[in-house]
């Protein structure tokens, strides 16, 4: 809808909205994690290498899952395409899982309270995802399929140079129409489901809910991460049924996309983590209380 914020005429200098939102997503997520690290007894100095691992793991895992599942011929013919970000796409779930595993391995090696740290970081992943999906909306990627509903009056029109938001009667009430050639979208001129905005809204609400649970209702180590894995998996599985972009992945067994299979795996991991956490309870470190949360005054959550 708005792939570029501005460009310098006569030069190749362009500020891409997606890239800016991606950097903002990582920045906000890392900032919130820095505030919450002390709550679970982790020195914030450890977050710098964790942030680097999260970024590298996010890119590696999202590329690997997408190429291996959606473009296997390209991947196995040219494995080095994994490092060429101009070819193929990314599968967010692969990046999330890869980042969690890499950061968890680092935390374990450094003797940090892995599950406590996971609980502190889980809501931060969600706020990063929410901001990142706004970038997807601006870039015209990760959009939904065509809505076979007659559009009503335009709500925003000229606000977005690359398209418009259109009101329709009945579900989904709001749709988006992209202009041809805008971003990486492959459907133009017709109303489509604004799945990027759905996921941005859903992940932000989950961020608020899990932040409140982290502050007031954390009963065992790993609880918030387990809830993240299960709740995001459910949200993503549902939204995926409305996706219509060409790089969303291949359907398996006639019904599952790459991300839906990943969602099933995430939900399963969340259930197993919850069972483990319930049997283990809190560790020996000082348990979390709302009174020692340094984010209370800053975020109110």
What does this entry look like structurally?
It is a single chain. Residues about 295-300 have low confidence and may be disordered. The protein folds into two domains: about 15-145 and about 195-300, no CATH class; about 145-190, no CATH class. The strands form two sheets. The chain has a three-stranded antiparallel β-sheet with strand order 3-4-5, with no helix packed on it. Strands 1-2 form a two-stranded antiparallel ribbon. The protein starts with a strand and ends with a helix. Strand 4 (about 165-170) and strand 5 form a beta hairpin. The protein has helices at about 15-35, 45-70, 70-75, 90-110, 115-140, 195-215, 225-240, 260-280, 295-300; strands spanning about 5, 15, 150-155, 165-170, 175-180. Helix 1 runs antiparallel to helix 5 (about 115-140) and helix 2 (about 45-70) packs antiparallel against helix 4. The chain contains nine helices and five strands. It is mostly helical.
Show unreliable segments. Answer: 294-300
Helix content: 40-55%
Radius of gyration: 20 Å
Give the count of helical stretches: 9
Strand percentage: 5-15%
Please tell me the overall pLDDT.
82
Question: Which strand order spans the largest sheet, edge to edge or round the barrel?
Answer: 3-4-5
Most strands sheet: 3 strands, antiparallel
Q: Could you say which structural class the secondary elements and strand pairing correspond to?
A: mainly alpha
Tell the overall outline.
globular
How many discrete structural domains?
2
